[in-house]
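Need tokens for this chain, all 747 residues.
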Amino acid sequence: MQQQYESYKDLADSLKSASALLNLECKSQLHQDIITICNHLVNPSFRIAVFGPFNHGKSTLLNAILGNRTLPIDLIPTTGAAITVKYGSDVRTRIMLVDGTEIYRSGTEVLQQFAILDSNRQMRKNVASVEVFCPHPFLETGVEFLDLPGTNDRDEQDNLVREQILSADLVIQLLDARKLMTLGERENLRDWLLDRGIKTVIFVANFLNLLEPDEQKQVQNRLVFVAESFRAELPPGFSNLYRVDALPALRARLKGDVAAANSSGLAAFETALQNIVGILQPNRGSVRLPRVQAIASQIQLSLKAKIDPIAIEIKSFDDKQNTKIEIKKKAANLICKGFATSVGELRDWLALPKLLTKYQADAAVALAENSFKAWQINTLKKDLTQLQFAAVKWLYQAYEFFQEERPQDLLMPFPSEPQVILPSKPSNSDDLSEPGSIAVGGGIGWLLGGPVGAAVVGSISYLLNKNIQKQDEQLAKESYHQEVAKLCITAIEDYFSRFSSQGLSILNEYEQKAEKVICFEFSQEPLEITNNRENLQQLQNGFNQLLQELEKVKILSNHQPYKEIPKYTNTNRKYSPQPERVKISPEKDPGVKQQQENTAKNTGTRVKSVSPPPPKASPSPRPEEVEAKFRDWELNEEIARMKAEMRSPKACRQTSPGFKTGKQQNTTQSNKAPNQPKTQTEKDKITRAHGILGLQANASLAEVKLAYRTLVKKWHPDLFVNQPLLLKQAQEKMHLLNDAYTILSEK
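Here are the structure tokens for all 747 residues:
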């Protein structure tokens, strides 16, 4: 019993907490019902209410049961308050006023002052509660009677009755046999009882003794119909219809006339009433919980009416924010990937072995020919600028996309120009007219004119491109031009060593600075959404708690608990992708390593990583180089598409595929819904385009893109640079592919 009491108490607390979340008006019907049912849930007494319109004899019937004139009765409506009759050792009355004053009197005469209607037939507004204590054995079993004001008289009385009847475990519906079941009574049965889960109802017909015998039979038949039509939930074997002539019953009790009490129907009714109460009282929960279920359902519906719009609003906000964040994350990752690739290419280019392999021969020749400055500008600087731009463009993409920190330019100054100290000229050389001297910066060609200068240039190529035979090493003395060539090679190696070291250091610092550019902060959640999120959490917690307490007392619900809403975790956070840096190891290229060894052996200088210079003719690019170009283009296209999505997610535009080759230009296509072809010519073009790409007529845009990419990688003109016939065929094929893609992506 104690455990059940605790469960009911927890349920009552949950009902009150949920009600508080609704901000109900204190005078609203739902608020009053919640307070009433919560108080009733923990009431240990079994309460019986007498209910019906005014002048139906409710107080008279209760007085007859109690055996005295405990309650005020008269020929006009008198009861102006809900009077609770409880057990007491003697008859006394306790009245609580609204201001907290307690009036405690012996007997019930004080009821005439506080519990009846005033001269204007109005309820007394200063009365909070009225209790009468009476030494009756039925009351001693823990039963309470509730004498309610008559209905259908005044709205104020009706509101009080409607509120109080919810706290009754058993309702005695008093009927007037002379005017059986008026429209108002039918409405009250439906609205005040059935719809609120109150089904433990007993009908008692009064005034049947005032009718003629023939009329009594007709009325009894109608009473049976009324009783059977009401879905009462009483213990099996008990009727929900009784006849009690209230006033004759009261008179019989006051006189002690047992026979008259029996003939009035009072004795039979009392016996049935006591037996019904004896069965229902031990399991009051089965009576009270249906009323709780009806009220809890109203609370849940009201809470859902507040929860669902807020939840929809927050979900919409979160979806939009998450979409933007995902787009930004994807863009950041793509930009980071593109930047890392470009930086990797620049780092690879700056590696000393690669610089020497690609440029040492030409640079040494330019130094010997007094044209190093021009070579540096026209060749080295041009290649560096192109690689620098390829890396920096990604940071400007990031700045345009995220508007974080403006990127700095990637500046890599060249070292000071190489310096060469010429050795003394041989005395036995007729064509050398001047002693050794120093040539700085501008080259040494001006000192080595004629055959000697040409010999130096030839020696540079010889030393870098041929192995010197062992017999050459046995020569007593190297030729002068070979010695000068060695100095040029060494000077260039020293120049590139400084350039490589300085460039790689600058590049590493630049990569660290780039992390502040390729990133974005998650936006602060608006205060209104934050407040709504907190409010929603409170509402959902109240809803779930109520649902949980209902389940504990076996009240089933059609509602499911709300899942906890995710908290906004993007506040004051920054997203910065971490690239994987590509490290280039010269040991992985055996050709470079072998060339380094050969050169070091031949020259006896600090040359450690040289290989034959590349041929002047442009070689055909390898397929992986074309693939890399294609990936680079795809990253640009994807970022452009995401930018468009950020501006207008519902109508984003994207760049159509295509490399810039010759007169080829990238075109921008709209990602809108396809239009139907209007002419047969257009239909023929589409059919032909599908054929060129090897697709079915119903191919999707994704399939078109995939087919186009596959064919481009196969027929790109860069793959056939040194094959004139195939190059022409590839260019024609690319033209057809581009036209087909344009047609199908616009249809």
